[in-house]
UniProtKB/TrEMBL annotation:
Organism phylogeny: Eukaryota, Fungi, Dikarya, Ascomycota, Pezizomycotina
Name of the protein described by the UniProt record: Uncharacterized protein
Keyword Transmembrane: yes
TM ranges: 12-30
Keyword vocabulary terms for this entry: Membrane, Transmembrane, Transmembrane helix
Length: 418
């Protein structure tokens, strides 16, 4: 029996998460309307509903993509990202100046890395620890089930993909009590290292969220450290908590005040790709052939390591997507009155997968676009795309779709929250 979470948390890059039982996500770009339920407010119970108005639900959906990927984001200062709730959360914590937390095995695909980084930051806050930004690796672009876990040459990939200075600057402002050290920080001298396994907490279940205000990560760390004979409150000897599992550890929804959730969404704004990757997304988004009223966007999953486990094989995905597109395209033609199908823009990291989609779509009268095609003769950007890993190519092509404003979506059940 497959587990389905009782809570659905916001995704940095999409509410249709990486881990889905079936994957089918289709967007119809129709103009400048608001998101059509694309990123939803979580399903809270009790008093929290009174603390979250409709405006709060819709307002920051656009905010993340605007602040992270638009042109104005490049010149954003620390004063323009407001993290009042994160600051309030940090202010309420009792901090331990000689305690450090380091997530040592952030090694999932880039979509889930965002979730892992957020959990890592949140665990450090809950514990009252300083933060060493994570060690991270990425899946091999050819052998997709190889995440290079434990390979030293791949361990320092964090700075290559994420804007480390952005995290350090904004997190340092929101939580001045926390020292935030870079991912390549040399080992702390004379430190005691303790391995903390969140999955060892009684009742822990993968992918469902676990620690919250009633069952805190801090209490679990204190208990585990005490059993290992280590005190975390030393003013002399530093202690480094090494965390290996960070995916879906924290559940910020189980807080009747809503503070945990609001702080969680603010942490989202701290995590963004490097500047060169953000500018590449801008260039693709501004391509003439991607006018906002002329295409349907499809995110195609071709990772063979999870076919049958999290999503269908390529042929089945293409068939399901095209069947749904047929319905939407009919409505589109009726509204336009010109009998022409909209273009289809496919976000995918694999050229062969896109070509197969293009072949089958052509049989139904559709023209398929991709990031390589829309860039035309922009050799500089095309060269940048070729340097991207498999995950990066799919991720940034997908973000292009998400940047556009009104979307039609057929959402599957999900087991991942980002």
């Amino acid at each position: 029996m497959k587990l389905v979470p009782t809570t659905i948390q916001i995704s940095i890059f999409s509410a249709v998460a990486v881990l889905g039982f079936e994957f089918l996500a289709i967007w119809l770009i129709l103009g400048n309307g608001s998101y059509n339920g694309f990123l939803r407010r979580p399903t809270f119970t009790g008093a929290l509903g009174k603390h979250l108005g409709d405006n709060e639900d819709s307002g920051w959906r656009d905010r993340y993509y605007r602040e992270v990927f638009t042109e104005s984001a490049s010149n954003r200062t620390t004063d323009t990202i407001l993290t009042a709730n994160l600051a309030e959360l940090c202010q309420a914590i009792t901090w331990r100046p000689n305690l450090y937390l380091n997530c040592t095995r952030v090694s999932a695909g880039l979509f889930n890395q965002v979730n892992e980084i957020k959990n890592c930051i949140r665990m450090a806050i809950d514990t009252g620890a300083n933060l060493i930004l994570p060690s991270s690796s990425e899946r091999d672009s050819e052998r997709l089930n190889n995440f290079h876990t434990g390979e030293i040459a791949w361990k320092r990939q964090f700075r290559q993909r994420w804007d480390e200075e952005h995290i350090m600057s904004h997190l340092g402002k929101a939580c001045p009590q926390m020292k935030v050290l870079p991912s390549d920080e040399p080992p702390i001298s004379n430190a005691t290292h303790i391995l903390i396994d969140p999955k060892g907490s009684p009742g822990f279940k993968e992918y469902l969220g676990h620690f919250d205000g009633t069952r805190t990560f801090r209490d679990y760390v204190d208990k585990t450290s005490s059993e290992k004979g280590t005190t975390l409150n030393s003013t002399i000897s530093p202690v480094v908590l090494e965390i290996e599992w960070t995916l879906l550890v924290i559940n910020p929804e189980n807080d009747p005040t809503g503070l945990d959730w609001r702080a969680w969404t603010e942490i989202s704004l701290l995590i963004r790709p490097t500047e060169s990757h953000r500018r590449l997304v801008q260039k693709i988004s501004e391509a003439e052939s991607l006018r906002k009223d002329t295409y349907i966007g499809v995110h195609l999953r071709v990772e063979h390591d999870a076919v049958g486990k999290w999503w269908d094989d390529l042929e089945m995905q293409v068939s399901k997507n095209l069947n749904s597109i047929d319905v939407v395209a009919k409505r589109f033609r009726e509204q336009r009155g010109d009998g022409k199908n909209p273009f289809i823009y496919v976000a995918c990291g694999d050229k062969k997968g896109i070509e197969r989609f293009r072949e089958l779509a052509a049989l139904r009268g559709y023209i398929v676009l991709d990031k390589w095609g829309v860039l035309g003769n922009d050799t500089e950007s095309l060269s940048e795309i070729e340097k991207l890993s498999f995950d990066e190519r799919g991720l940034y092509a997908r973000v292009v779709i998400l940047l556009h404003r009104r979307q039609y979506e057929k959402r599957p059940r999900t087991v991942s929250r980002n």
